Records
---
Amino acid sequence: MLRVLNDFAYLSTYQPRCVMPYIICEPCVSTCDTACVDVCPVDCIHGPIKKDGSGQEVKEPGFDKTGKQLYINPEVCIDCDACVPACPVEAIFEESQVPEKWKSYIAKNYEFYGLQPPAV
Ligand code: SF4
Ligand code: SF4
């Protein structure tokens, strides 16, 4: 009986894993203002260097942002959309909505975290 109750409790709280995360694309490159980091409720936006940081390195004196960007961890993103309006350069898209010219950024976000990107 206890097992049945435990199973029911688990199922009633089950949340499907994020299957369509958000992706940071080309406009972030060399911008890196980190506004998105501040609004993400699950702390899944990191980089441009530290994979577990909050973008603090871009604020360090002398840091060169050229060619660098932040990345969303697709295994942690919960598809909440909070980061999209926060980005001043419209760099963030839901994975299925990434413009064709920036499709390569899907793999960049996955690979920053050592994850296998989806086939596109
Ligand atoms: S969609 Fe939500 S959870 Fe995903 S990166 Fe943006 S703010 Fe974070
Ligand atoms: S995605 Fe937008 S808000 Fe986030 S660091 Fe890049 S430019 Fe800034």
---
Amino acid sequence: MAYKHLLRHLSLSCLAVVGLIIPPAVSQTFKWPDGKKMAISLTFDDARGSQATAGIPLLNEYGIKGTFYLVPSAVRKQLEGWQKAVASGHEMGNHSLHHPCSGNFVWSREKALETYTLDQMRSELTETNRQIQAMLGVMPVSYAYPCGHTFVGRGRGTQSFIPLISELFMTGRGWLDEAPVDPAYCDFAQLTGMETDGKDFEQILPIIEAARKSGQWLVLAGHEMADSGPQTTRLAMLRKLCEYAKDPNNGIWIAPVNEIAGYVKAVRDTINIPEMVVTDAKGILHLTAEKGKGTGPQIQYMPKWKAFGWFGAADAVEWEIEVPRAGVYEVRMEWSVDDKEAGKAFVLETGKVSLSGKVPRSGGWENFQSKSVGTLRLATGVQKIKFRPGQAFASGALLDLRQIVLSPGH
Ligand SMILES: [Zn+2]
């Protein structure tokens, strides 16, 4: 099985110290390009005046490209400056048409999110994209939530517009968040944004160092780019930050949001992210390899096959499932196995119930088949379900498992 050389899924371990659980910082499966240890995106909002006149020329000195979340009316005031910014390779994002925030900000009372609808939000976001493209010739794929607010309406009528951002854009960035983005886990429509305004480099450095330790993506966010002032990312700080980020010894990949998001998405397609399995419209549970958690010394998720490759007797795969109705479920397995490895025992177990069987022949490792292998009585609620070898074996493999499908009986 020489083709199974792709990313290895390493299990995470938790450390319990005096009653405190310290979670693992980041999935061990995520790798940055060229041996980099972390990523940074410099982002700035509102198309403030100082960005085009002072901030962008400074970034250009270092050959560093930022992401600028624009409000079209502000771009219009400095059109030439923003056209130059596009020509120098900076990313232009969408920051809405009228910058609506909660009406708790008095300046936003006339355009309060509490009075918005999703339809209105959709049409304004689309119009913003249209205006930016007309002025600058680029179509935004990145969005930043004004004030970091993600809702429309109020009380029981409140709705999130995160799904809309997820539909219209590659990413959505928040504001005043307290942690960097975990590339292996993040929801692209909710990238965290950490503030650079009013900070010295010495205050940013510990955040960078912590993010590097756990291989995270730090999306920094600011407003004005000047020597001093309110809501201002100071140029002196920015200079130090650029120098630090450019030093190859620091292992930093600094690039616009769309560039890093594109890389993260591509890598994410090749690793599996354990996720709770819920029923589809027909009440069926699809326990795909992509949603399972592999444990054991040799198990590997193989993106090319969307399956777990099964090597040793100590390997297993576990899913978290939510069963809405207790009852007997038909168990269907989608697998492949070399003829000479077929026939070993497997066990599927949850709580006190289990199903045992022998892995049938599929006609070779590259030939996946789907077959009913029995039934299992499931209890209602969230539970773990595990698939493992049912016998010890010293060499060879059990099977490659793509998914287990649990269908409710009649
Ligand atoms: Zn803003």
